[in-house]
TrEMBL record:
Keywords tagged on the record: Cell membrane, Membrane, Transmembrane, Transmembrane helix
Protein name as catalogued: SURF1-like protein
Membrane-spanning intervals of the chain: 197-217
KW Nucleotide-binding (keyword) present: no
Source organism (scientific name): Roseateles saccharophilus (Pseudomonas saccharophila)
Entry superkingdom: Bacteria
UniProt topology in membrane: Multi-pass membrane protein
Primary location: membrane
Record's subcellular location: Cell membrane; Membrane
Family: Belongs to the SURF1 family.
Alphabetical list of PANTHER family matching this protein: SURFEIT LOCUS PROTEIN, SURFEIT LOCUS PROTEIN 1
Amino acid sequence: MLLAALLATAFTARLGVWQLDRAAQKIALQAAIETEAGRPALANAELGGAEQLHRRVLVRGSWLAERTIWLDNRPMDGHTGFFVVTPLRLSGRDDVILVQRGWAPRNQLDRQQLPPLATPTGEVVVQGRLAAAPSKLYELGEGSTGAIRQNLDPAAFAVESGLKLLPLTVVQTSADSPDDTLLRHWPAPDLGLQKHYGYAFQWFALCALIVGLYVWFQLLRPRFRKQS
């Protein structure tokens, strides 16, 4: 019983410490994100690879409006609609970057009807931050290839469209024309710190319970019986 109690105590305590370590890693990640966001904005010529994740950008290019993708079932400000993703052909370069332009409401009566979208022609300036691929939702079966989709895989979209895509996307933070009506109340990334702290508390509580039960049943209770 002593060996079992020691093993269980060590195991649950180690799991609690591991959850605290995971929370510390998330805090360090958030600090790194804030550090990257505070650096000067990147221009077209400076765009590179995944190591630039979370950097601010100020890029110039022209919209490929015919390639716009509407990601369905995306919430913003308590409403469900579309995330609008449009490729931007970068000025002075031969490659393209996907831009998460903002959120647009969905027609509740006709799910296939797209809302009006003002897409300027000619060169535009886009301000934002670099991010990975758009967030994915659970999807049954294979993904669709139309304008309205549940998810967008940049690698598959590059093959489908024939575009030379950069490995990151831009989360746009400012309007690119006076007619721009897209919402950009992008939520801050959820690091899940409360989840890790909650799990740590559960493991430490279980550890304390095991110690308490061992002390009661193996040490205290036999003494009380002898005394009685």
